[in-house]
# Entry
Amino acid sequence: MNKNVLGLFLMGVLNGAVQAETVFVTLEKDNALAVVDPIAGTLSKSVDIGQRPRGIAISPDNKLLYVATSDENTIKIIDAESLKEVGKLPSGKDPETFALNPAGDRLYVSNEDDSLVTVIDIPGKKAIKQIKVGVEPEGITVSPDNLWVVSASETTNMVHWIDTLTNEIVENTLVDPRPRALAFTADSRQLWVTSEMAGTLMILDVKTKQLIKTIKFEVQGVTRDKIQPVGVVIDKDSKRGYVALGPTNRVAVLNAQTFEVEKYLLVGQRVWNLAFSPDQHRLYSTNGLSNDISIIDLETQTVTKSVAVGTYPWGVAVKP
Amino acid sequence: MMRIINPFFQITLKFLFVIQLLSVNVVSAEAKQTINIAYLAQEQKIPPVLSNLDAFIKDQGVPGAELAIIDNNTTGQFTKQQFVLKKFIVPLDGNVIDTFNKAIAGQYAFVLVNLPAELINKIADLPAAKQLLIFDVATVDDALRNQQCRGNVLHLLPDRAMRADALAQYMMKKRWNKWFLVIGATEEDRLFAEAIRRAAKRFGMKIVQEKPWEHTFDARRTEQSDVSVFTQVDDYDVLVVADEQGQFGEYLEYRTWNARPVIGTQGLIATAWHPTHQQWGAEQIQNRFKEQAGRWMEEQDYAAYLAVRAIGEAATRTLSSDLKRLKDYMFSAAFALQGYKGNPLSFRSWNGQLRQPVLLSAPRSSVAVAPIDGFLHPHTELDTLGYDQPESSCKWSQ
# Structure
């Protein structure tokens, strides 16, 4: 009995040490979810998830995963432990990107073909509102203080500021062509927006909705056209931000105070989306064309490993 | 008295100026601005066709412009701008110049024209045309972009030279170095063949044999044996066909004496747009277009879409409807048009040609997108296609 308990205890300790965190990656072409152990740097398994999975997020309590299965016109709720489907949300047509509010009870979905943002009440599993936005909405995010939902429309070239209380658009800011992804700083004072066509990152002031600065990326040996910023994340202390540069196969490291680009890290091909490890010591990138994810050590700012995951890795979420 | 008023007045002015600056990006309630766009086309005779698989499309271009108007107005509802499209479709026996003079001249600053090459410059040279900007959404003519270029005309579709260069890059990459060029009987075929010869020279490829196609165009009488005999020539890697109307090109594939791929105006084609193209968000616009028009998007629809979107983009960025301001913006470095082909699109300052990737497509598969990887250029790889600035014989008269 005692031995058994000790054994279990030891196993627990070992498990804890080895499996510090789990990385989930949606595989657009494989209709599957890849489960990666980033410490060991290996693919643990890959499970069927539904047709054309793209956007993915984890609930604040880390118990549930939300996965947009675009060709099934739904967002699936997946138990993060068993990876079994436990429910579905009425996302509207062709869901791709979506955002959770900090409390984890609201979900905002971009419906690209219909120029809409659908607001979903998660406990009720009900769509409570559809908001008309610009043409081809894609990037969407909620401010950490839960005051704003911001949606970027790729063809209208605007970010739409939606008040979370009324679910109405309050203001619109014109940005550089084909805005893709958005991220707020942890203090909710800045909004970072990437423009795929202009090759820029725009920093907007949340209070005035005005542009503070535009950062133009330049990578040696790569022509302007190829520099197409997509995913963006900012660390919790607002020390550094990271921008995935698509077909340049690089992630830009920015000083979030001075907005200087400090470094370009070479990752896999057509880097798309980014996610931090829970302790923010590492960054994970999905590389759409090389079918792998890159693991970046943020202390040394080096790419330490790439893990083959399957065809067209798209979104990434991390469970502690 | 004046002394008291003046400083106050100055402060007010400054204050107004600050407000003006602030409102450039944050779009709020203002008076509504209307941007009128004319679309001028002439009905077309139904050409003879080889196969009745492809129905003749009467309204090529129109639904593209209409879709772009919807997109522009979606943005416009946030910028308080309204875009209005008025169509002028001249009957077969009608006079296009008359319609232009009576209905468009002096009333529109932006005019899309879906007309043959010879009519475009006739319109561009009319005195009233100096006060407007013409968007050519139909021609592929190299001469219109070179010696016959006009400062008030922009060209939305890739010209023959850009298409031939796209094909040549792909053939070079595949090491299909020896070409057998087959040329149809029309003037357009002759011009396409000329572009192919130029591309061969540019990329160091060799045309080992050239032959005019002189057989009948009737499917019942052109037997497979004709092509077999016709294609018994010195060895070549690839057959390049110049048949823009599609009168015989489809006969060549699978019927050549040696097993060789067919490329050019049939087989693997170079095009601005194609139903097989799904990358870079293209799937979204393909869906939206099909839902609206009930058919696939054709090249001229794509061109008309881009023309109206270019006007919209310039009007939104400048918050203006003024011809000069919009034109200046379209030629500025800031102008970047999203064309669903990966690269931002812009106008070449030396001839008004829209620089863009060219799709290389088989009937049911997207094969490649030019510029092909590895073809480099000091400014933008897009300028490896067609007449680059030093090669251009266009003397702008803006």
About this structure: The first strand of chain A starts at residue 22 and ends at 27. Helices of chain A lie at 2-18. Chain A touches chain B at residues 112-113, 115, 134-136, 153-158, 160, 171-174, 176-178, 197-198, 208-211, 223-225, 228, 247 (CB under 8 Å).
